[in-house]
Amino acid sequence: MRMGRALIAVVVASVLAAGALAPAASAHPASPQAADPSTYERSIPPLTDSGGRTLTLRGWNVEDKANRGEAALSAITERHFRDLRANGFNFARLLVFWDDLEPRRGQYSERYLRKIERILDWAHRHRIQVLIDAHQDVFGPAFGHRGIPEWATRTDGLPFTPNPDDWFSEYFQPAVQRAFTHLYEDPDLRRAQDAMWQVLAERFRDHPAVIGYDLINEPMGELRDGEDLATAARRIEAQHLTPMYNRLARAIRAEDRSTWLFVEPTPIVGEGVPTGLGRIHDSRTVYAPHFYNTAMEAGADYDPEAGWIEAYEAAVTAYPARHRMPVVVGEWGPLNNSLPSMGRFYREAVASLSRYSSGWAGYVWCYGGGYCAVDERGRFRTNKEQTATPYAPAVAGAVRSDAYEAATRSYRLAYRAAARPGITELSLPPSTRGWRVSVTGRAADVLGKAPYGGRLAVVAWPGAEVVVTVREAGPHGRTDRP
């Protein structure tokens, strides 16, 4: 998601008018959640696997927006997943497009499904878990983008004027907004959307790489006359997105009873606006907001004094805490990552995401410039190496604390081992200096060796209190202490 400069004033003024975003003078919101993160940390449950282990997902979006038809998904190769794994990541959010899956009403592309399956096979080979994301940008190809097919686009003849210099502003064109209303309200389009997801769920429900389905990317809707943006977002979430997600959940569960369902609010949540989503009546649902700042997406540097991360964290945690849902942030990361304060942004963003989420997918794993995580040679672009830190992809027990300290390159995990034996997994990113790992706790031990990065396993006596400490070695092989 990217908002241009032309839209910044509208968004910020609208949100401020609704009282949803604290101004810079009140940089640290007085929310009890902002003041005491442990409040929502205790209320937001973790993502878990079938064995009850606490999961952490760290990775990136993987996409091919440029190619379609016979060439669809051709820009995604096995290298993407091999490199993700080599850098310590275990998660990919894979963008798929309804217009490629069902180019004509009721005719699903077997070629496209096979291409998705091949990508999932690559991911599984490299132990990357995949979230299948039904992606849309500005609704779909009827408006020059990707997503909902043209045959499912109804505008009632309302106008649309392209704005390639600020494509996100096209969401506010009358034709685009009306198309969303028809998608939410027209019975035949709702049935078509249900059927599309049932095709995906039936095909991929047993694939070992698939961890979840992201039901629609960055959904928007139609503003009413005189309605500010924050109020409109909450109404759209309450009146359109909530029933849509419950309907899609019922449709998917007819084919797949266990795969996690990921639901998103509107992208306006990025300005610290609490969502208006209601309860999703499915016990395996994940809240999947995005983490973008309007000014930064338009090219501005990170402003630590503005309190944006604090405001976002306070707002985004209220809904999952109330409804007892895990959180996985589906997209984040600024375009201009090398500006003077971006190093601090990445440190503070990773720390914030770790406080309340079960993981995240940065935007985007590609080889080049712009939003790409790495350059053509596969080297991290400026500041993006800070996303590659030690973490625990799976913990066989109840996590007491889990924190990485960027200043000392040290990681500490404390947990109470589960009553039944299980394996806790550690992931260490590549390090030329090497990592030092220690563990304390009854019968606790580290299995394997990964001094310069890789995966390790930790075992402990059931019920034991375990502490795992990871530190990067100093320049001469010594361990730098905090």
Structure description:
Helix content is 30%, strand content 19%. It is an alpha/beta fold and 482 residues long. A 7-stranded parallel sheet has the order 8-7-6-5-4-3-11. Strand 1 and strand 2 (54-55) form a beta hairpin. Helix 3 (37-43) packs parallel to helix 11 (308-323) and helix 7 crosses helix 8 (187-204). The longest helix has 25 residues, at 229-253. It is globular and about 70 Å long. The relative contact order is 0.13. Mean pLDDT is 92; it is low at 5-35 and 476-482.
Can you lay out the helices and strands and say which pair or pack?
Elements: H1 5-17, H2 32-35, H3 37-43, E1 47-48, E2 54-55, E3 57-62, H4 78-86, E4 91-96, H5 98-101, H6 110-125, E5 129-134, H7 174-185, H8 187-204, E6 210-214, H9 229-253, E7 260-263, E8 285-287, E9 290-291, H10 294-297, H11 308-323, E10 331-332, H12 342-356, E11 359-362, E12 391-395, E13 397-405, E14 410-417, E15 424-428, E16 435-440, E17 445-447, E18 454-459, E19 465-472
Parallel strand pairs: 3-4, 3-11, 4-5, 5-6, 6-7, 7-8, 9-10
Antiparallel strand pairs: 1-2, 2-12, 12-15, 13-14, 14-19, 15-18, 16-19, 17-18
Helix pairs in contact: 3-11, 7-8, 8-9, 11-12
